[in-house]
Amino acid sequence: MALEFSPEARKRFAEIVGRYPKKEAAMLPVLYLAQAEFGYLGTDAIEYVAKIMGVSTARVYGVVTFYTMLNMKPIGRHHIQVCRTLPCALAGAEKITALIKAKLGIDAGETTSDGKFSLLEVECLASCGTGPMMQVNEDYHENLTEERVTEILQSLK
Fold first, then answer.
1. Mean predicted confidence (pLDDT) in 51-64
2. What is the value of pTM for the model shown?
């Protein structure tokens, strides 16, 4: 069965596209909508977005693969992204990532077998003065220590 937006998502799609002078300018918010609706942007979702946006599948694929916040495979319910850019690296991001890997039993780019957690090392999350930092779903966690990360992970289980 081909993917399709729910009636609510179709309404939201029309609202999003209506805010832009050209339909293609709405690509990123529409991809966010599709990711929220389908869980991730697999081949079917990319083809569907291309169809409703009136652009090629290659165009949508190019956008999806450019942005790290768009996921082409399923992610965990708690999607952890650890900043690895220089300011965070100098503040101890490698230790934070190593701790998360050890506690969850996964490597970067993987999801736990129960689907609760996924882990990514990402480039700048725009919080350079408060590193090391990580983003869990939409929430920023800054000035991380090993103790604080342990508390955060425990609260998410």
1. 97
2. 0.76
